[in-house]
Amino acid sequence: MGNSFICRRKKDTKDNNGTRSKRVGGRSQRKMLSEEELLHRQALSMALHQHQLSQRFDGSMSRRIGSTSSRRHTDPLANNEKKVVESLENIKFKRIVLIHGEGFGAWCWYKTIAQLEEVGLLPTAFDLTGSGIDLTDTNTVTTLAEYSKPLTQYLETLPEDEKVILVGHSSGGACLSYALENFPEKISKAIFLCATMVSNGQRPFDVFAEELGSAEHFMQESQFLIYGNGKDKPPTGFMFEKQLMKGLYFNQSPTKDVALAMVSMRPTPLGPIMEKLSLSPEKYGAGRRFYIQTLDDRALSPDVQEKLVRENPPEGVFKIKGSDHCPFFSKPQSLHKILVEIIQIP
Description:
alpha/beta, 6-stranded parallel β-sheet, 3-stranded antiparallel β-sheet, 16 helices, 12% strand
């Protein structure tokens, strides 16, 4: 539980000292606000200038952004963080791969990356095919294998004795399931963050069916579909209108993170989320899965998330109160604490 700080102000007096005290307090408050704004401005600038970045997002930009204010202030939780660092020193597998959900990119993990690096872990975030700054035309991405290619290529190049911890957000959970089935020996743990933890023979879209209606109805009636090959051809992608997106995904997120998302999100390829997964008990079923529920989520309701873990039980279930569909924005500290807790499970 974090510490609470209550600022008590003495009664105003008529002398100049009281006036001066107010001015000093005002300057201090403005300084703290400006430092907070600097963090978000830098993150927003990162998104606006994505074309200048390399295709793989390694977290170095986020580390610099996340450290801006910490260089000037003493962290009240420094001692606790030191203990966490010490407890993680003996963890065998420290590589964590962060997989974004529909419409997002590696950019959405900027807070999580900074926090994980600060405790000595090795996070990596990818742009899935056609997402973030990946230049692939979204309309050409038709299969989950193609969509997940940046992840599978990374897993293929891992040394034989190396394993990673996967974290998948929203529809990125399908990529985790795909990886568990195809690279079970490379994955230490798979963490589904309010994600599509599907069962064998299920489509990622099926998880959202209660909110969006049946796949058939969505394909015929949705106003958010994109027809990259022409109106006479099947739809190739979808993207929600901005106001709807704010209500579904960001109902508890800071305004500046929402602004970052609004200039960074891209259409989602339709093919991968409409594909039925073939998952075996020997591979996928043997993987160590964990699920993090978000309890103020309007995109994937708590009831749906509860149904997922009931029908396809993971090893452990964790919950974030007051979080919308994007806890890396709305509840970054809570998310970080849970990730570290899962990582430390033997």
